[in-house]
């Protein structure tokens, strides 16, 4: 099978020289640290390609400056990744032979790939499921949980997730249902409607059983939001055209505070419950949930999507609730924006730099994989793009711009890293910086301007200069003091 390589052979050969966690940017004999440089350009001439090293020294004349201060720290990072929807897992499992599947998962999750460290997992059907799967939940038989089973996911979703976790043992998993089983809802349908108040308890049991089943299968859920996009549809009378369930913030607070939170606490599971899981445009929603005296004690933070509003909505929530965390859990590219260069810039600027500078502890894009026809779909987006595209005709895997956007951060910023202070120059050289647990520093820089820019990076009383083409992205790594 022909497969499009994720980056050039030169970069692949050089990948073995990057020893994050041991010797990245280490200079012998206490000399100034050597800075490793990895770059992607909008014209695709460089795709996460290793460049010549830079070296810290003195002086520098560039007027644009990025100051990196590792002593000033912000949020701790959980990871970067995407979602193994039913569609994505089916494509990887059924359309790639074992060798191609191993290569893809290594390129996605391995240390010599981009090291993705976060997966968001639909629990039951979503708008990306195969026709064979349909609108399934884990118990579609009324009116108790005696028929609960996760056999559907054990067929191919859980094996893929287990292999991803074997490839990257630090991988964290977030679970999200798109709907409660139809029989728990006001409209007896997986699309639309609301959760009946009298079924808060059985829905809590359903979620606990789901988390326990995933844990028993070797894929414990680190995080759980109890409802994907609770404002879509906009009311309980609406329809999204795929599994969905409207839920007001008051309803979410009541369900968590009265039943879901206590039952997860009693279960012994370490799963953290997240509020909201919808767009930037409504930061007040998770605020209502965490301010609830019963629900708030069980909810360590909120999840956001990118489709409406501005990333500053994350900071609005954080400023009101500085003791709570934030996760950016869904954003998809698609054919509505087919230009690689524009997508590289926008996604880096708004999701990676913007997301983390606005307090995101993790960033997850939407489908890890879709086919050449943007599917399989189950009533949702008809022109979305995956992190990779799997061609069902010939098994070719194409690595899309999302792969490189994620690679520029996931490969170099490990779970447990902390965001540190760095200067960011809006619409010129924008940046975000991190310090890994081993002291390795990673600085991601985007030239958001329309012209080539030379800039100076200063840290620890030393500096170096670098020139970046318009729209290009660079990650610098070096060993901190």
UniProtKB/TrEMBL annotation:
GO terms for biological process: glucosylceramide catabolic process. Residues 1-26 form the signal peptide. Keywords: Glycosidase, Hydrolase, Signal. Residues 77-413 form the Glycosyl hydrolase family 30 TIM-barrel domain. GO terms for molecular function: glucosylceramidase activity. InterPro entries: GH, GH30_C, Glyco_hydro_30, Glyco_hydro_30_TIM-barrel, Glyco_hydro_b. GO terms for cellular component: membrane. Residues 416-476 form the Glycosyl hydrolase family 30 beta sandwich domain. Belongs to the glycosyl hydrolase 30 family. This is Glycosyl hydrolase. It comes from Saccharopolyspora karakumensis.
């Amino acid at each position: 099978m022909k497969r499009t390589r994720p980056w050039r052979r030169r970069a692949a050969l050089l990948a073995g020289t990057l020893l994050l966690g041991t010797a990245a940017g280490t200079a012998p004999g206490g000399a100034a640290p050597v800075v490793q440089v990895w770059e992607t350009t909008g014209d695709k001439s460089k795709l996460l390609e290793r460049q010549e090293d830079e070296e810290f020294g003195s002086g520098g004349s560039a007027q644009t400056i990025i100051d990196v201060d590792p002593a000033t720290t912000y949020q701790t990072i959980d990871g970067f990744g995407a979602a193994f929807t039913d569609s994505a897992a089916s494509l990887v499992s059924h359309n790639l032979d074992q060798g191609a599947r191993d290569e893809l998962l290594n390129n996605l999750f391995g240390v010599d790939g981009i090291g993705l460290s976060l997966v968001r997992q639909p629990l039951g059907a979503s708008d990306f499921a195969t026709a064979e799967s349909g609108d399934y939940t884990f118990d579609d038989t009324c009116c108790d949980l005696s028929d609960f089973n996760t056999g559907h996911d054990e067929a191919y979703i859980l094996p893929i997730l287990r292999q991803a976790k074997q490839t990257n043992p630090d991988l964290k998993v977030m679970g999200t249902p798109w709907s409660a089983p139809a029989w728990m809802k006001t409209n007896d349908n997986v699309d639309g409607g609301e959760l009946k108040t009298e079924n808060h308890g059985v829905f809590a049991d359903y979620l606990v059983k789901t988390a326990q089943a995933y844990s028993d299968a070797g894929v414990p859920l680190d995080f759980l939001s109890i409802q994907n996009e609770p404002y879509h549809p906009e009311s309980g009378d609406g329809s999204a055209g795929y599994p969905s369930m409207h839920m007001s913030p008051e309803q979410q607070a009541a369900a968590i505070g009265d039943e879901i939170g206590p039952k997860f606490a009693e279960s012994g599971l370490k799963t953290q419950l997240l509020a909201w899981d919808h767009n930037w445009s409504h930061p007040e929603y998770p605020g209502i949930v965490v301010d609830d005296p019963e629900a708030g004690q069980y909810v360590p933070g909120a999840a956001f999507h990118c489709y409406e509003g501005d990333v500053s909505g994350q900071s609005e929530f954080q400023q009101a609730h500085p003791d709570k965390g934030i996760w950016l859990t869904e954003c998809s590219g698609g054919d509505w924006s087919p230009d690689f260069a524009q997508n590289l810039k926008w996604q880096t600027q708004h999701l990676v730099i913007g997301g983390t500078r606005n307090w995101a502890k993790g960033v997850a894009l939407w489908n890890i994989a879709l086919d050449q026809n943007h599917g399989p779909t189950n009533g949702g987006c008809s022109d979305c793009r995956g992190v990779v595209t799997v061609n069902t005709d010939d098994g070719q895997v194409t690595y899309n711009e999302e792969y490189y956007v994620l690679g520029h951060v996931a490969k170099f910023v490990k779970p447990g890293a902390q965001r540190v202070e760095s200067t960011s120059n809006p619409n010129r050289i924008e940046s975000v910086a991190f310090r890994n647990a081993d002291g390795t520093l990673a600085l991601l820089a985007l030239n958001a301007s329309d012209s080539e820019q030379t800039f100076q990076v200063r840290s620890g009383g030393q500096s170096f200069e670098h020139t970046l083409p318009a729209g290009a992205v660079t990650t610098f790594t070096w060993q901190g003091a």
